[in-house]
Design a protein that fits this description.
The protein has 419 residues and is an alpha+beta fold. Helix content is 47%, strand content 19%. It has 3 domains: 2-110, Alpha-Beta Plaits; 150-237, Chitinase A, domain 3 (Roll), CATH 3.10.50; 248-415, Trigger factor, C-terminal domain (Trigger factor, domain 2). It has 11 helices and 11 strands. Strands 6, 7, 8, 9 and 10 form a 5-stranded antiparallel beta sheet that branches. Strands 1-2-4-3 form a 4-stranded antiparallel beta sheet. A two-stranded parallel sheet has the order 5-11.
Length: 419
C-alpha cells in the first residue's frame, strides 16, 4: 500500500491510496476463498463451489465489499501516519477493481485547518474601566424595584420604561389590533425610537411582523409598516425602599443598609463580568484579524449549533426553523471556532498549563457559588468528565490574559449604569 496526501485547501485533504496489482490479486483470492467456504450453491457440497462459479455469480458484490475494506484500511493508516484530524465522514468515489491492475482509491476529508500563528502580542486594545458611584447604586436599586412597580396613568410624552397601549389597522382586518407592552429601549431600540415623545392620541409609524398564519398569504412571515395610535401611557411608580417592603417580599434582608450593600456587591460583580467579557471580545477580535484561517463547512455548522444549543433544544426545531437560525447565527459560530483554534495554538506555542491547584480552586469556587460540598462536587465533576472541559476553559482564559499582558490599552472610564 502506498499513501500520498494532497492539500487542495487548508481544511481539506485528498488521500490517494494505491494498492499494487499483486496486493489486489492476493486480497481478491482471500475474499473468494472466504465466500466459497460460506456460500451454499445448488449442485455443490457446502464450501465446495468452484472459484470460477463464485466469480461469475458473486464477483461484483465481492469486489465492492473489498474496495470498501481497502478504503477503510488505507484511511486508518493515513490518519495514523500523517496525523490527520478529520472533522467529517470521509468521501470516497469508488473506483473499478480489476484483478490484474493496480487499484487507486481517492478519499477526500475535511480537517482541522492548517494555519500559522502570525501575531498574538503587541496589540493596541480598547478598554473600558467601569466605575461605581452612588448614582449607579441608586439606579441599580431602582431597576430592582421596577420589578415591583405599579403603573399609573400620566399626561406626558412616552418615556423609556413606560407601559404603553397602541392600536393599529392591519390590511384585511376590519377591527383595529391593540398591543400593550413596557417600552424598553435596550430590548427594542427601533420601537422605542419610533414611539418616544409621542403623546396620547398621536400616531407614529412602526414596523410589525406578520405571522405565518396571516390571512393574506403573501404577507405571512414578512415585516410591514403601519400607523400606530397611542391609546394609553402609564409610568412606573416604584415602591418605597423600607423594611415593610423588604419583609413583604420575603427577600431575607435584616435592614435596608444590608440590601444596599448587597446591591453594591451586585454592581461589583457586574463590573468584573463586563470587563472580563469585553477584554475577551477585544482580544479575540484582534487574534482573528491578525491570524486569518478558513474553516471547513462541518466546523462552521458545529460552531453555529453550539451557539444555538445554548438557547434552543435543536431536536425540537423543524428543519426550516433550524436552517433559519443557522443562517442567522453562522457568523457567531465561525467566530467561536476560530477563537478556539487560535487560542489552542497559542497555548501550545507558549506552553501554558493549568496546575492541579488552580483547577481545584476553580471547582471550589463553583461549588461555593452553588452551595455544595466541595469534595462531593469535585468527585461528581471528575466522574462526568467535566474536569477536562473546565481545564480547557481555564487554559483559554490564561491565553487571553497572556495576550492582554503583552498588549497596550487605550482606556476610557465609564459609569457602570451609563447607557
Amino acid at each position: 500500500m502506498d499513501i500520498k496526501i494532497e492539500s487542495p485547501l487548508s481544511w481539506k485533504k485528498s488521500i490517494i491510496i494505491t494498492y499494487s496489482s499483486g496486493e489486489v490479486a492476493e486480497r481478491l483470492k482471500q475474499q473468494y476463498k472466504k465466500y466459497g467456504s460460506q456460500l451454499r450453491v445448488p449442485g455443490f457440497r457446502p464450501g465446495k463451489a468452484p472459484e470460477s462459479l463464485i466469480k461469475t455469480r458473486f464477483g461484483d458484490a465481492i469486489k465492492t465489499e473489498l474496495i470498501e475494506e481497502l478504503s477503510n484500511e488505507g484511511f486508518r493508516q493515513a490518519v495514523k501516519e500523517h496525523k490527520i484530524r478529520a472533522v467529517n465522514t470521509p468521501q470516497t468515489n469508488p473506483p473499478e477493481l480489476e484483478e490484474d491492475q493496480d487499484l487507486t482509491i481517492t478519499i477526500e476529508v475535511e480537517v482541522v485547518p492548517e494555519f500559522e500563528l502570525l501575531k498574538y502580542t503587541g496589540f493596541q486594545l480598547e478598554k473600558t474601566e467601569y466605575e461605581i458611584s452612588e448614582t449607579d447604586v441608586q439606579r441599580y436599586i431602582d431597576q430592582f424595584l421596577g420589578n415591583y412597580a405599579d403603573y399609573v396613568p400620566v399626561e406626558r410624552p412616552i418615556q423609556n420604561n413606560d407601559y404603553v397601549v397602541i392600536e393599529y389597522h392591519l390590511e384585511g382586518h376590519e377591527e383595529p389590533t391593540e398591543d400593550a407592552f413596557v417600552l424598553d429601549q435596550n430590548k427594542n431600540k427601533e420601537l422605542f425610537e419610533s414611539l418616544k415623545e409621542a403623546r396620547i392620541g398621536e400616531t407614529r409609524k412602526i414596523k410589525v411582523l406578520y405571522s405565518d398564519e396571516y390571512d393574506i398569504k403573501e404577507k405571512a412571515n414578512t415585516t410591514g409598516e403601519v400607523e400606530a395610535k397611542v391609546v394609553e401611557i402609564k409610568a412606573p411608580q416604584l415602591p418605597e425602599l423600607n423594611m415593610d417592603f423588604l419583609k413583604s417580599k420575603n427577600l431575607g434582608f435584616e435592614s435596608v443598609d444590608e440590601f444596599i450593600i448587597t446591591a453594591r456587591k451586585g454592581l461589583e460583580s457586574l463590573k468584573l463580568k463586563r470587563e472580563i467579557e469585553e477584554l475577551d471580545f477585544a482580544v479575540t477580535e484582534q487574534l482573528i484579524q491578525s491570524n486569518p484561517l478558513e474553516l471547513p463547512p462541518t466546523l462552521e455548522i458545529a460552531g453555529t449549533d453550539q451557539i444555538l444549543s445554548r438557547h434552543w433544544d435543536l431536536d425540537k426545531l423543524s428543519a426550516d426553523e433550524l436552517s433559519e437560525l443557522q443562517g442567522k447565527f453562522k457568523p457567531a459560530g465561525i467566530r467561536l471556532i476560530k477563537r478556539e483554534l487560535i487560542l489552542n495554538k497559542l497555548i501550545k506555542q507558549e506552553d501554558l498549563i493549568v496546575s492541579k491547584e488552580e483547577l481545584e480552586t476553580r471547582v471550589r469556587e463553583i461549588a461555593e457559588q452553588r452551595g455544595l460540598d466541595f469534595n462531593k462536587f469535585y468527585m461528581e465533576y471528575r466522574s462526568r468528565g467535566y474536569l477536562d472541559n473546565l481545564k480547557d476553559d481555564l487554559l483559554q482564559d490564561k491565553a487571553i490574559k497572556f495576550v492582554a499582558e503583552n498588549s497596550t490599552f487605550n482606556i476610557k472610564k465609564q459609569n457602570i449604569t451609563q447607557e
